[in-house]
């Protein structure tokens, strides 16, 4: 893929999302995708807290036998969009976790495409989305498994937490598989906070708001369980926690 | 300490408690027994203030306050602990973090200083030891991957750390094997047997009462207490069944 300016996403391209056109029209420059290449047998990591408005885009190639990890927190600001296009060579591993938060008046989008182009690669992705007020989160998780890519192991889990009647979360796992010996798992669940857990925390002494924040943070923290470095994990958790406190 | 008068409560507009009265003094252990569907768990949830459990009549005084006017966390801070029949799993939050935040929230609302990390861990270690629970388990997410027995022991560790005035324990004995039952029973005695504390045990069976000797036993049927007595009543129930005792009381 060339490092060229991306086209601004339209609703025609992405019928799965319902972002108000006015929000997209107000979008200024569309950036160039950042290229990341992880050498065969190597290790590469991207950890990023995205707090500003606009589109962030990465094109990542994970070389044969290499390990790549990407962990992101989208903390909510006007319109935010993270695009990832990841190509996995033979035996490569990709571990991904992302928290997406959108408060009142905010739209956050996560669009990932994982390309299993060669045999024996694995990908594991955990997405936790929280929308409150009239905030909206859109998630598209696409996985392509080429005919060659036998022995692929791909997992994608998306969970959404709706805080309020006006909040929206759209999530679409999309799998296109041409190889026959593969393991592809995807799960998607969107719901409200468990009232039983909320009462349990209150009964132990936490005021309702504090109980809500704690449970939201717990929900989001699952996205970062696989972060290897504890200091990095804590940084991402704190960023997500601050964002969730803001949108609660 | 706790004075319930003529309590009526509904769940989803269905009347469950129909005029329940009960007084518990400091230093006493009471047991409530009764058949399925009598309203035992509803009583615990109603006193705890769970949303959806609506009081339609009656009053509850707890430690000199109108309990029903308080929010659930205020009831906890006032010294009411509810041991859950099915403790809730909270992935992503360690027991230590959960309990420290809960304890410090309670202390704050009582106008006390928060407990430091070191002091809290010391307290947690002591109470976990009482219930023979490994500290490593307290570092794991709340109740996640715990067996039924471990969850109940964890409830008792939480009770030890939060140090309530009154513990309402809803079927704390269910799901326990014989050894765990003894450990939990001894834990309840160690934590709650004190002149300024009281316990309300909600149970189906006599077996927990072998370890935690009640001062009073009540039979709850169809939303009311139909019979009260001493520890012997539990034995009589075990022998004759709820139906016979409830009918005898009605006669």
Folded structure, characterized:
The complex is a heterodimer of chains A (248) and B (251). Chain A is α/β, with parallel strands linked by helices and 248 residues long. Chain A has helices at 21-25, 195-203, 208-221, 230-247, and strands spanning 34-38, 43-50, 54-62, 67-74, 79-88, 93-102, 107-116, 122-132, 136-145, 153-163, 168-177, 183-191. Chain A contains four helices and twelve strands. The longest helix of chain A has 18 residues, at 230-247. Chain A is globular and about 55 Å long. The model of chain A is unreliable at 1-5 (pLDDT under 50). Chain B is of the alpha/beta class and 251 residues long. The longest helix of chain B is centred in the middle third of the chain and has 15 residues, at 95-109. The interface between A and B is medium-sized, with 24 and 32 residues.
List the defining traits of the structure above.
heterodimer; A: 248 residues; alpha/beta; 6-stranded parallel beta sheet; 4 helices; 12 strands; B: 251 residues; 4-stranded antiparallel beta sheet; globular
Describe the protein's topology.
The complex is a heterodimer of chains A (248) and B (251).
Chain A: H1 21-25, E1 34-38, E2 43-50, E3 54-62, E4 67-74, E5 79-88, E6 93-102, E7 107-116, E8 122-132, E9 136-145, E10 153-163, E11 168-177, E12 183-191, H2 195-203, H3 208-221, H4 230-247
Parallel strand pairs in A: 1-3, 2-4, 3-5, 4-6, 5-7, 6-8, 7-9, 8-10, 9-11, 10-12
Helix pairs in contact in A: 2-3, 3-4
Chain B: E1 2-11, E2 14-24, E3 29-33, H1 40-48, E4 53-62, E5 65-66, H2 72-77, E6 80-83, E7 90-94, H3 95-109, H4 117-130, H5 135-139, E8 141-142, H6 148-162, E9 166-170, H7 178-192, E10 198-203, H8 207-211, E11 216-221, E12 224-229, H9 232-240, H10 242-250
Helix pairs in contact in B: 4-6, 6-7, 9-10
